[in-house]
């Protein structure tokens, strides 16, 4: 690689890094909006007088955040650069910029109406609740537009030079997106909001989903005992004990490099175990090769999707059934896949490489389902996707569970993974350090600090 190429790769990866940070912050804000919705319905349904302290904290948070991101002259360098490259986006960008100014006025109005609730309850409820509903809706729309239009266009159109300028132009000291210290500060504020959120809201709107009973649920399906895995001389998984019961969604969370992918690959047989034992439905599979495990019903969707980019959507799906031959049954399954993922039917003749990230994730899941898994191993299905697409992927996972597929879900997106899970494990440098129900892990102080950023 020439020096220039190296610089370019570096700058591009800075662009991706910037986008990832923006998306993460959108998610955090989205959760605050979820919490506001819960508080709103609590106020309307139960005629609960709003908790003034909590609302003020939330309003402060939103205001402080948007002020920090968007008030300096260099604030919307991203908008400026994108506008220059894409004139057709300019009206939208103008509208979004106006949204920030209007948002500030709306917040002032909300503060006023909240104060009214304290002195004139219940008459003041309705104006406050209407204004609040309008506000959260507008903010959601704003995030959707940034996620759905601005970021994809920026990703496509901005050069490495643009990204370098966007990042450099920011006042990193005070920037809640790119300033390390300031991000800490905002994490602290979110923590405070949680501390004064009533228990029944589960904190930041993260209520565990109601358990869905699946056929044959509850029996031990996969049992792992004392499992170790090494790359060469370096052992990266040590003495792993875990159990997945039939019909469960079990989530595995842990920092980058903890060994999550290695664990999944050891379960699916792509990586040999150096010690320990793995039984599936009572059969010892420790030394059984990967393709045979697929036939037994253990199927993995790898990290980063890894679809075959130069093959059509259709052919990718068929490859998922390679252990099953090409029977009428496989063709019927293909039809079912298209019914489950209509977008894949629409794009069945497209090359997989032409699909968006979310569509590729669906394709990777569809391909795995073509093997008729009984235990599906998902490695970070939400990685790099926008919040709305993530919701969709998580909905699909919930559906699969209802259909009776047992799921082992690896996620860095710990909050959603644990909210969805029956049980979960936390992996730290190759060891299981915490286990419990999804609910227990969500309320575990250590998990909150380390993985939920709260
Ligand atoms: N193919 C490999 N060869 C050598 N070391 C690896 C390999 N893959 C992963 N590792 C190392 O193993 C550890 C666990 O990695 P991984 O399972 O990918 O973690 P996670 O999925 O939790 O991010 C890391 O220290 C990583 O550097
Ligand atoms: Mg991984």
Automatic annotation (TrEMBL):
<dbReference type="InterPro" id="IPR052156">
    <property type="entry name" value="BCAA_Transport_ATP-bd_LivF"/>
</dbReference>
<keyword id="KW-0029">Amino-acid transport</keyword>
<dbReference type="InterPro" id="IPR027417">
    <property type="entry name" value="P-loop_NTPase"/>
</dbReference>
<dbReference type="InterPro" id="IPR003439">
    <property type="entry name" value="ABC_transporter-like_ATP-bd"/>
</dbReference>
<dbReference type="GO" id="GO:0005524">
    <property type="term" value="F:ATP binding"/>
</dbReference>
<keyword id="KW-0547">Nucleotide-binding</keyword>
<dbReference type="GO" id="GO:0016887">
    <property type="term" value="F:ATP hydrolysis activity"/>
</dbReference>
<dbReference type="GO" id="GO:0015807">
    <property type="term" value="P:L-amino acid transport"/>
</dbReference>
<comment type="similarity">
    <text>Belongs to the ABC transporter superfamily.</text>
</comment>
<dbReference type="InterPro" id="IPR003593">
    <property type="entry name" value="AAA+_ATPase"/>
</dbReference>
<dbReference type="GO" id="GO:0015658">
    <property type="term" value="F:branched-chain amino acid transmembrane transporter activity"/>
</dbReference>
<dbReference type="Pfam" id="PF01814">
    <property type="entry name" value="Hemerythrin"/>
</dbReference>
<dbReference type="InterPro" id="IPR017871">
    <property type="entry name" value="ABC_transporter-like_CS"/>
</dbReference>
<keyword id="KW-0067">ATP-binding</keyword>
<feature type="domain" description="ABC transporter">
    <location>
        <begin position="222"/>
        <end position="454"/>
    </location>
</feature>
<protein>
    <submittedName>
        <fullName>ABC transporter</fullName>
    </submittedName>
</protein>
<dbReference type="InterPro" id="IPR012312">
    <property type="entry name" value="Hemerythrin-like"/>
</dbReference>
<dbReference type="Pfam" id="PF00005">
    <property type="entry name" value="ABC_tran"/>
</dbReference>
<keyword id="KW-0813">Transport</keyword>
């Amino acid at each position: 690689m020439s020096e220039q190429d190296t610089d370019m790769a570096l700058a591009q990866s800075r662009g991706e890094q910037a986008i990832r940070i923006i998306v993460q912050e959108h998610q955090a804000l989205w959760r605050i909006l979820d919490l506001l919705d819960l508080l709103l319905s609590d106020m309307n349904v139960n005629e609960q007088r709003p908790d003034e302290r909590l609302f003020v904290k939330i309003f402060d948070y939103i205001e402080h955040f948007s002020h920090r991101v968007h008030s300096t002259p260099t604030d919307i360098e991203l908008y400026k650069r994108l506008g220059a490259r894409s004139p057709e986006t300019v009206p939208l960008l103008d509208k979004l910029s106006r949204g920030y100014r209007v948002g500030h006025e709306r917040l002032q109005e909300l503060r006023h109406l909240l104060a009214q609730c304290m002195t004139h309850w219940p008459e003041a409820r309705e104006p406050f609740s209407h204004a609040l509903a309008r506000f959260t809706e507008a903010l959601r729309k704003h995030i959707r537009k940034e996620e759905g239009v601005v970021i994809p266009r920026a990703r496509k159109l901005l050069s490495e030079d643009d990204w370098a300028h966007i990042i450099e132009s920011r006042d990193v000291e005070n920037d809640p997106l790119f300033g390390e210290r300031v991000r800490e500060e905002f994490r602290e504020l979110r923590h405070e909001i949680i501390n004064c959120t009533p228990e029944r809201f589960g904190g930041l709107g993260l209520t565990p989903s109601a358990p869905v009973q699946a056929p044959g649920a509850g029996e031990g399906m996969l049992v792992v005992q004392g499992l170790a895995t090494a790359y060469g001389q370096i052992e990266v998984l040590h003495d792993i004990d875990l159990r997945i019961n039939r019909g469960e969604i079990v989530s595995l969370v842990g920092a980058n490099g903890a060994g999550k992918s290695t664990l999944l690959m050891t379960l699916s047989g792509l990586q040999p175990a150096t010690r320990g034992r793995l039984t599936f439905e009572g059969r010892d599979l420790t030394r059984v090769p990967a393709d045979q495990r697929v036939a037994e019903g253990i199927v993995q969707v790898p990290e980063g999707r890894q679809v075959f980019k130069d093959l059509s959507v259709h052919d990718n799906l068929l490859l998922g059934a390679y252990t099953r031959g090409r029977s009428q049954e496989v063709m019927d399954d293909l039809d079912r896949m298209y019914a489950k993922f209509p977008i894949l039917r629409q794009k069945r003749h497209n090359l997989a490489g032409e699909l968006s990230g979310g569509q590729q994730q669906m394709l990777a899941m569809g391909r795995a389902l073509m093997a008729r898994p009984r235990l599906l191993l998902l490695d970070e299905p939400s990685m790099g996707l926008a919040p709305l697409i993530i919701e969709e992927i998580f909905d699909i996972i919930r559906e699969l569970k209802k259909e009776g597929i047992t799921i082992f879900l690896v996620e860095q997106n710990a909050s959603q993974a644990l909210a969805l899970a029956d049980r979960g494990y936390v992996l730290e440098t190759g060891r299981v350090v915490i286990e419990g129900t999804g609910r227990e892990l969500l309320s575990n102080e250590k998990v909150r600090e380390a993985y939920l950023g709260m």
